[in-house]
Amino acid sequence: MGNMQDASLLLKLNRILLAGHAVMLVVFAALILVGGYEYRWGAFAASSLSVLVSWAICMIGARRAVMPVLTLVGDLTRENDRLAAGKPAQSVTTELEFPFNRLVESQARMRSRVNEREQRLQTEFERLSAVLNSMHDGVVAVDRQEKVLLANATSRQMVHFVTGEATGKPFLEVSRNWLLCESLRNCLVTGRMQRREIQTADEPVRTLDLRASCLPGSPPQGAVAVLRDVTELRRLENLRHEFVANVSHELKTPLAAIMAYAETLKMGAINDQENNLNFVHRIEEQAKRLHQLIQDILQIARVESGQEVFHIVRVPLHDAITAAVAVQRDSAEHKQQTLTVDIQESAVVDADEDGVRTIIDNLLSNAIKYTPAGGHVTVRLATDGQQARVEVEDTGIGISAENLPRVFERFFRADRARARSMISTGLGLSIVKHLSQAFGGSVSVTSQLGEGSCFVVKLPLGE
């Protein structure tokens, strides 16, 4: 306000000086007309001096009046340039009156709105980043130059991004997954969604379901890919196909034997007094095998699907082991095997009694089947911290190191030639694993080929 008052006073002073100068010019003109030569030069000199003084006073006044305006314009320009560049702008102040003060107020409102919008955008970006990084699916977006716009944490792990900031860099600089890059490129070129399954190059190999779509625009302004890990799904599908194939094969074998023996009896062997009972015995044996297979398949299906109804009670493992040994003792004696029970201390678990009996019975049956005549089978019971530990050890044929990780798979048999000569469904150990896990426990095995195996079941002790 002070600058405006100074400028106003200077303007008034300039007007007075100009008026005085005009009067002086009139006087000097009269003197020149009535006076002599000396008067003329004196009047000219006085007039020139008056003009110079007036001009100097006007320039000083104009400078003092204009400089605050120029300073204000410079400040506003500098801060607006900072706003345009996305940098924080400082507030601008002025003592000038209307209209300059209104210009400063307008710039302050604009700066406030820009800051509010930047804050909202930052909040939305952080919210979007949190959502993307919490997703189990990977998300990668690129622009038309295939430079990364965004990539959530899951996608960085899936396709193994290099360490460091990826945004703004060409995709192939931050990830060497050529198949993903190719899908994004095809999407940008064709404008159509791309879908395929790709595999990661690094161990462990993962199978990813890839769907790439274009970002809006004509031509598309970029592409976004969604990656879903379907490794486990594909593994389960393969297991299902393998399970169906194995079930078909296992059902076909006893059925074919039953049909063959029945056809033989039908064609006249029924009158063969020496062999007809043998054929009937074989049919009965295969029927039992078929019945056991169906029962095992139904049980493992119920356990895996969670439809098995367990009656959880306090189960003394001593009683369960004694009952299972009583059932299997005849089979061991038939092969002249020594069946030993070593119960070091009593233990009680909270589980389904029939389920626990099935676990021990299957392990004992498996040990007796794969132990040669005259061998030894030992059942031990002990506690290990808060767990009960049941061991079934044999001096049987053992399991090779390459087959050891697969012994709990359905229908897996380490010695298929031997398995065909006995009633075995190949599901017993798989049932043991699923029942142990259902009761909160686990099962493991150690083995040496030709020396025997030791299966260990751990179950939580009852409270």
From TrEMBL:
Residues 246-463 form the Histidine kinase domain. Residues 124-172 form the PAS domain. Pfam families: HATPase_c (PF02518), HisKA (PF00512), PAS_4 (PF08448). It is found in: Cell membrane. PROSITE patterns: HIS_KIN, PAS. GO terms for biological process: cellular response to phosphate starvation. One of its GO terms (molecular function) is phosphoprotein phosphatase activity. Keywords: ATP-binding, Cell membrane, Kinase, Membrane, Nucleotide-binding, Phosphoprotein, Transferase, Transmembrane, Transmembrane helix, Two-component regulatory system. It catalyses: ATP + protein L-histidine = ADP + protein N-phospho-L-histidine. The keyword Coiled coil does not apply. GO terms for cellular component: plasma membrane. InterPro entries: BphY/WalK/GraS-like, HATPase_C_sf, HATPase_dom, His_kinase_dom, HisK_dim/P_dom, HisK_dim/P_sf, PAS, PAS-like_dom_sf. PANTHER family: PHOSPHATE REGULON SENSOR PROTEIN PHOR (PTHR45453:SF1). This is histidine kinase. It comes from Roseimaritima ulvae.
